[in-house]
Design goal:
The chain contains seven helices and ten strands. The protein is α/β, with parallel strands linked by helices and about 210 residues long. Strand 8, helix 4 and strand 9 form a beta-alpha-beta unit. The longest helix has 18 residues. Catalyzes the transfer of a ribosyl phosphate group from 5-phosphoribose 1-diphosphate to orotate, leading to the formation of orotidine monophosphate (OMP).
Amino acid sequence: MSTPINQQVAHILLEKQAVILQPDDPFTWASGIKSPIYCDNRQLLSYPKERRIVAEGLADLIKTYYPEATVIAGTATAGIPHAAWVSEVLGLPMIYVRSKAKDHGRKSQIEGKLSPNDKVVLIDDLISTGGSVLEACRPVAERATVLGVAAIFTYNLKRAENNFKEAGQTLHILTDLHTLLEVASRDHGLTPDQLETVKAFHHRLNEN
């Protein structure tokens, strides 16, 4: 029996250190929060076999949930390469969305051809609160139809769920923190005490 894609991707993220669990030596996030988990899916750029599995997984999400998609959009900057690989798998055009419009030249925020009748799926690598990708949806929605978002990994934060609901956007994910912790405990040496540390941190985040 084949391994479900959410577990496959969780294993890849852990093996290639795109997600690192350090309950005994926490990271410091930009916000100053001490965190036992750090996600940097840019690490996947260096692994052709694994990034292909991720791209095909995202493409399958799109074929399942957004079959009418005509354009794949990448969010700057981390979503851009994944959107390129997904658009290649699907044989669809690609655009990417800057965090803000350029202040020179054509002053574009969206790069690539986008028509009013296009139906767009945005690709992001990580969903924490969802704020950045939802911000990227806005300029696209002004020019075409946004079908929703597909992403590699989410922290399973209630704030993200609420933000997507409030924005009226749908989200589909390859894998999430709950699955990753299950795989880490089973296959990557995460001890029961370390597991509880990460779960307690996640609970605190969701309470804020």
